[in-house]
Amino acid sequence: MKMSENPPALPNEDKELTRLVELFLEQRLDEASARDLEARLRQSADARAYYLSRLRLHTDLRHAVNPMKIEIEEGRKIVIEPSPDGPLVSSSQTGMLRVQPALGTSSVAGRRRAWAGWTGAVLVLLVLALAAYIWFDRQTPPAAAIELFPLENASFEADTLADGGLSHTPAGWNVTTGSSRLAFVINPTNDPAKNRYGGAHCPTSESHYDGSNVLVLSRDNNGRRGWANQTLYGRTGAGSKVLQLGDLDGRSLRVTATVGRASADAGAWARQAARLLIGVQEMGRNWRPVAVRKINVGPAPWDQADDNLALANDEVGHVSFELRLDVGEMRGDAVFFLYLDPTSPSGSEVFVDDLDIELIE
Fold it and tell me: Given the DSSP bridges, would you call strands 88-101 and 307-308 parallel, antiparallel or unpaired?
């Protein structure tokens, strides 16, 4: 038996629990103390954890348990049924414990043979507590059923824009404020007269975008970066709601997107490719990221990139990937974001279109 180098933690400085466990290990429990210990183990997960730690430290445990044959049977029942707010999932568990003398084991000599009947019952009780601790405190329940709603205005077509027209307030999205060039939706034009910044946007690649409009994210010469985000919505057993990160913990999102670059004639910023970040973050003052995908849009090397599209001007690429959401202690609203990496060149831009997200188990 491997011994711990440190004594087990005492829950809430419960000295009476320590005394009762020591009495049990020394085989000196009376009937009243046994009932007291039983009640503490049933009522407190911390008490069961402490009890289990002490058993692990006690070198005589094998002598107490070895004469017993212990069988634990577990069962799980999962029911999925319809409801007005979506499928409801319920689960239940059953268990049975059998303790009986093991065949072929050697007898326990000395004072262990003389244990009273109630002392043997205490051992059974404590084995039950051990089984309950392992079963209930370490059991991972089935994930609750969650439906993730699609992104709003995922292809940026909600705004009706004329050829070459711009919108700085795309429906469904929060975008960078303070500059007209960092984040906006545009209907790319191939008519130089309709492009205030240069010539044709995408004479070759325009047909590869979904619909008329695309989102443009840029980094200006002062280092300011464009971004766009929106809160994730879905349906749980409690109904439709803003999804918190706790709802998504341990799950994954499959994300697909179309990414492109304008023609070099479209403007000075079009000649440099920005580096795109797509991910999920926590809403709040710090906007902490949970999962991020790094996409190198242009041909210049970027060692940290997860995807290297190496697009030239007037080319389009597609990305598809999974984001694993391990949220830790974060419990704020879940926000899907598009952002430019700080290493994006000053005076660079990227086109984004046809976004899609899917919740996978």
Answer: unpaired
Strands 227-231 and 251-260: unpaired
Q: From CA 173, how far away is CA 187, in angstroms rounded?
A: 17
The two tokens of residue 326 are 């391990």
DSSP state, residue 225 = B
* 3-class DSSP state of 324: strand
Nearest residue to 336 via CA among 315, 308, 355, 312: 355
Strand order from edge to edge, sheet including 334-340: 174-175, 227-231, 334-340, 275-282, 289-296, 307-308
Distance CA 201, CA 187 (A): 9
Q: How far apart are CA 199 and CA 191, in angstroms?
A: 7
Residue 71 belongs to what H/E stretch?
strand 68-81
Closest CA to 202 of 162, 287, 259, 244: 259
| Beta strand pairing call for 334-340 and 239-242 | unpaired
Per-residue pLDDT of the chain (361 residues; tens, 9 = 90+): 344 445 455 545 678 888 888 888 777 878 888 888 888 887 787 787 787 777 766 644 455 445 455 555 656 666 566 655 555 555 555 555 454 544 444 444 444 444 445 555 555 555 555 555 555 545 555 556 899 999 999 999 999 999 999 999 999 999 987 667 899 999 999 999 998 888 999 999 999 999 999 999 999 999 999 999 999 999 988 889 999 999 999 999 999 999 999 999 999 999 999 999 999 999 986 789 999 999 999 999 999 999 999 999 999 999 999 999 999 999 899 999 999 999 999 999 999 999 999 999 7
8 Å CB contact between 25 and 33: no
